[in-house]
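User: I've been trying to design a sequence by hand for this structure and keep getting stuck. Would you show me what you'd pick, starting by listing the structure so we're on the same page?

Assistant: Good idea, let's start from the same input. This is the structure you sent:
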C-alpha cells in the first residue's frame, strides 16, 4: 500500500500536459528506452514517460481513481490485458496490420497491437561452467541435471507473467504430466527465485546465480562476455503488446504513438540491438536478423485460450509446489540424486512421488479462474490447503523410501 500511495502521489504532483503521454509498462526501462528516444526525435512536441511496475501493480493503478493519468500500457502479459478488457478498461485501436493482429489473443483483437516479439531460453555463466567442467544447458531437459544443483534462477509465475508464459509453453509442448515432472525436477536445482523476469539476468550478472531462465531481449542486450544465451529449441514467440486505456485523457496522441510503433520507422526502432526484440513486420533482407526473424515469426504460437483458462491454476500450483517449499524440495532432490549416484540407477518410484500433481490435465482446463468471486476464492483457499498437504505427504513418502535404501 505504501508503494501504491507513493506512485499515486507522484502522479498527482507531476504536471501532465496535453502533449505528454504516460505509459505503464511491465518491461524494464532499458527495453523501451531506445524506442522512446526515436519517437521523441520524430515527435518532439509529444513527450513520453514510463512507469515500470509489475502487472499486479499496473492493474491496481488502472482500477484506481487516478487511472486517467495513464494513457497506454506496454506489456507481454495477455493476462493483464485480458483482465482490463473484460472490465471495459481498454479503448479500440484504430488500425492494426494483420502481421500484428495475428499475434494477439482473440479476446484482445482490435484492443491491443503486438509491435514486437521475444523468445525465451537459458542464460548461463559459461566461464564458471567451463571452469567446473560442466556443459552449458540449452533446453528444459538440460536444466534437470543434478550437476546444476543450486545454480538456477527463475522468477515465479505469480509475480512475472513472462515466466508464466514460459512455464505454460513448456506444459503445452510436453503435456501437463510430463511438463510438471520436468518443472518439479528443475525446482530441485533452483537457488534463487526472483520477483521480476529481468531480475534473473541481474542475479547472473552479479554472480548470484549461474544459470537463468529468461526471455531473450533481457539476455541479448547484456554485454557481459562471460555469459552466453541459448534459446529453447521449441521457441514460441512472446509478443509485446501495446494498448490504449479507455480513460486516457490524450487518446489521439496515444493512438499516434501506437501507429508509430507499427510503422516502418517504429519497427526499425524495435529491431535495434538495444531493445533485444524482433519487430512483427517482416524486415528487409539487408538487416542483420532478417532470416532469424522470418523463421521466428512462422513458429507455432502458444495456445492463448489454454493459457488464459488455467492462468490462476498454474500460478497457484507453482507457488505451492515450488516457491513456498523450495528448501525442502532442494533437500529431497539432493538426497535422491546422491542415492541414485551411489546405487548407479534411477529410482523411478521415488521420482514419481516427487513429481506427481494433485490435479490432472483435464481438470486443469475446467478450473475456476476468477478468484474475485467469493465462492471461488473460498474454493481456492481450500485447494491451497489440500495441495500443501498433498505435496507434504508425497515428500514424506519419498523421504521414507530414500532412508530405507
Amino acid at each position: 500500500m505504501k508503494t501504491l500511495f507513493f506512485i499515486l502521489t507522484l502522479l498527482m504532483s507531476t504536471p501532465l500536459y496535453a502533449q505528454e503521454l504516460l505509459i505503464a509498462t511491465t518491461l524494464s526501462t532499458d527495453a523501451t528506452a531506445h524506442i522512446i528516444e526515436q519517437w521523441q526525435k520524430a515527435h518532439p512536441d509529444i513527450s513520453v514517460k514510463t512507469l515500470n511496475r509489475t502487472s499486479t501493480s499496473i492493474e491496481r493503478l488502472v482500477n484506481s481513481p487516478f487511472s486517467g493519468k495513464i494513457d497506454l500500457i506496454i506489456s507481454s502479459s495477455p493476462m493483464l490485458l485480458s483482465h482490463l478488457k473484460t472490465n471495459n478498461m481498454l479503448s479500440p485501436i484504430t488500425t492494426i496490420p494483420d502481421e500484428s493482429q495475428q499475434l494477439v489473443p482473440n479476446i484482445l483483437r482490435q484492443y491491443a497491437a503486438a509491435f514486437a516479439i521475444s523468445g525465451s531460453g537459458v542464460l548461463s555463466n559459461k566461464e564458471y561452467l567451463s571452469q567446473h567442467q560442466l556443459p552449458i544447458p540449452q533446453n528444459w531437459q538440460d536444466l534437470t541435471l543434478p550437476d546444476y544443483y543450486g545454480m538456477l534462477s527463475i522468477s515465479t509465475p505469480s509475480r512475472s507473467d513472462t515466466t508464466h508464459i514460459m512455464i505454460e509453453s513448456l506444459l503445452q509442448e510436453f503435456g501437463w504430466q510430463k511438463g510438471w515432472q520436468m518443472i518439479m525436477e528443475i525446482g530441485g536445482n533452483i537457488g534463487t527465485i526472483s520477483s521480476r523476469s529481468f531480475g534473473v539476468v541481474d542475479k547472473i550478472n552479479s554472480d548470484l546465480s549461474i544459470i537463468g531462465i529468461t526471455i531473450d531481449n533481457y539476455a541479448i542486450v547484456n554485454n557481459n562476455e562471460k555469459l552466453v544465451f541459448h534459446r529453447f529449441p521449441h521457441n514460441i514467440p512472446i509478443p509485446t503488446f501495446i494498448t490504449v486505456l479507455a480513460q486516457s485523457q490524450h487518446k489521439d496522441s496515444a493512438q499516434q504513438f501506437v501507429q508509430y510503433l507499427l510503422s516502418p520507422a517504429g519497427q526499425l526502432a524495435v529491431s535495434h540491438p538495444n531493445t533485444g526484440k524482433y519487430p512483427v513486420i517482416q524486415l528487409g533482407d539487408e538487416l542483420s536478423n532478417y532470416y532469424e526473424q522470418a523463421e521466428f515469426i512462422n513458429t507455432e504460437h502458444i495456445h492463448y485460450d489454454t493459457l488464459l483458462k488455467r492462468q490462476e491454476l498454474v500460478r497457484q500450483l507453482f507457488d505451492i509446489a515450488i516457491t513456498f517449499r523450495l528448501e525442502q524440495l532442494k533437500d529431497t532432490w539432493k538426497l535422491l540424486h546422491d542415492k541414485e549416484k551411489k546405487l548407479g540407477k534411477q529410482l523411478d518410484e521415488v521420482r514419481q512421488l516427487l513429481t506427481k500433481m494433485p490435479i490432472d490435465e483435464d481438470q486443469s482446463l475446467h478450473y475456476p479462474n476468477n478468484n474475485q468471486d467469493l465462492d471461488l476464492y473460498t474454493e481456492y483457499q481450500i485447494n491451497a490447503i489440500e495441495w500443501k498437504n498433498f505435496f507434504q505427504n508425497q515428500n514424506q513418502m519419498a523421504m521414507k523410501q530414500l532412508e530405507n535404501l
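That's my pick for every position. To get oriented when you compare it with your attempt: The first strand starts at residue 20 and ends at 25. The chain has two domains: 2-117+238-281, 120-235+305-403.
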